[in-house]
Design a protein that fits this description.
single chain; alpha/beta; 2-enoyl-CoA Hydratase, Chain A, domain 1; seven-stranded antiparallel β-sheet; seven-stranded mixed β-sheet
């Protein structure tokens, strides 16, 4: 299986799968002993000059500098990147849960755009675009030869305009052509429903600015329908988002002041601990939405559902609830995105997204390139033929788990499933899973486990 070079650039600009802090770290105070590599910079200047004087066509200085910055960042790890003005704006809008586009997270594989995941309730999701689809043509433009950034820009556009996607899909003898109509993508961060009297399902699709407040509203509404005996918190295919959202969601279910997550990096700003307290998830904005939660939320029996699409902020929540023995983690191994990206604004409304720290669960476990291991493994289908999942450890230049760096050979990523299972039968999976339905195998098993946990607790 070839490796995807860049992961999770949502078409429309939202960069998912990143644990992001939009605060500017204090990098101004640096070690005065660190000097500039003068000889290397001379070499850079000579290359710059050679391109300016001899390249077959004129190249603008601004473009050359932007390309150099993008190259420096792009060769660090899969999540550091240069954000031009459009990308920076899209990132800021995306964390608010609204952006324009088709609603697919994409990467590049073998020169084609690969669909990592369609986002729920979007044009791509409704049209049946699947994870693993390879997009080879955009209208009449072949994708081969385009960069991922160029391909994404072609898929963006004004709402109500259409685009034809030429798609190669495993199991299909002929290429598919799907026409999508662009729209403003509004991602609903939290969803919920009462499954049966006493048992509720709450799903978080992405961690946004409104996630903590939205969660409080949904929990309050569920408790108005009656006392809960059990709760399934569904984090499957949640690619992550804002750090404070993960802390707030964890705090909703944990005792006050317990540790949720810690971060560690080279700068003092990167060495932090975050607790289940308002100042760590509110970021100084407004009243605490968790103050109005029913007291019973802290003790209701819980199961947390995760899979290979659960990344970053999702893994913080699952890790915190697991370490504090607050919930049983059910599903399959999570993605393993255990690094923090800080967004550093630059002149011209551009920015860089720089990996500045690793994060650790309350007990000190690193999730980087490992993920959260469920307490109870439940595959996505009864016969185990779930989709083959790309994980952090599969990405080129991924950060190694620092705790295992000394034993490199032992830390080599292992496939999440035997090779034979990667050749899964697409027909065994529903084309579009309806979460928390009778056909949702993982959820039904989680509900059975939850009832068992609730029964055992009642016997104590």
């Amino acid at each position: 299986m070839s490796k995807i070079k860049t992961l999770s650039l949502a078409v429309g600009g939202f960069v998912a799968g990143a644990l992001i802090t939009l605060q500017l770290p204090a990098f101004a105070e640096k070690d005065a002993k660190i000097g500039l590599p003068i000889e290397d910079l001379r070499t850079f200047a000579e290359v710059y000059s050679a391109i300016k004087q001899g390249y077959v066509e004129p190249v603008e200085d601004k473009k050359m500098i932007a390309n150099a910055i993008a190259g420096m960042l792009g060769n660090l790890d899969p999540h550091s990147a240069y954000l031009d003005a459009d990308s920076f704006k899209d990132l800021q809008v995306g964390t608010q849960g609204e952006f324009g586009g088709l609603g697919i997270e994409v990467g590049m594989e073998d020169g084609l755009v690969k669909v990592v995941s369609p986002i729920e309730d979007t044009p791509a999701y409704r049209a049946g675009v699947k994870a693993g689809d390879l997009i080879f043509k955009l209208d009449d433009t072949p994708v081969k030869g385009l960069s991922l950034s160029d391909a994404v820009k072609k898929m963006r556009g004004k709402p109500k305009t259409s685009i034809r996607l030429g798609i190669l899909r495993k199991g299909e003898a002929k290429p598919l052509e799907i026409t999508l109509v662009r729209e403003v993508i509004k991602v609903q961060s939290v969803k919920s429903k009462l499954i049966e009297p006493g048992y509720a399902w709450v799903r978080i699709t992405q961690f946004q600015e409104t996630t903590v407040a939205d969660l409080a509203k949904h929990l309050g509404k569920l408790y108005k329908e009656g006392e809960l005996k059990g709760l399934v918190l569904d984090l499957r295919n949640d690619p992550g988002g804002l750090l404070n959202g993960a802390i707030g969601v964890s705090a909703a279910f944990l005792p006050p002041e317990v540790k949720v997550v810690s971060t560690d990096g080279r700068t003092e700003d990167a060495k932090q601990e975050f607790l289940a307290r308002p100042r760590d998830y509110l970021r100084g904005t407004g009243e605490d939405p968790l103050r109005s939660l029913p007291v019973a939320v802290k003790k209701v029996p819980m199961v947390v559902l995760v899979n290979g699409g659960s990344a970053s902020a999702s893994e913080i929540v699952a890790g915190a609830l697991q370490d504090h023995k607050r919930a049983a983690i059910v599903g399959t191994q999570s993605f393993g995105k255990g690094s923090v990206q800080s967004v550093l604004p630059l002149p011209g409304n551009t920015a860089i997204k720089l990996t500045t720290a690793r994060y650790f669960t309350p007990s000190g476990r690193s999730i980087q390139a490992k993920g959260i291991t469920p307490d109870i493994v439940v595959d996505e289908t009864p016969n185990g033929n779930g989709p083959a999942r790309l994980r952090e450890a599969d990405l080129e230049r991924h950060l190694e788990d620092k705790q295992d760096a000394a034993k490199k050979e032992d830390a080599k990523p292992q496939p999440s499933k035997p090779a034979a299972k990667e050749e899964h039968d697409d027909e065994a999976m529903p084309a579009r899973l309806e979460y928390a339905s009778k056909s949702d195998y993982q959820f039904q098993q989680a509900l059975n486990i939850l009832k068992g946990v609730q029964f055992m607790q009642g016997k104590q």
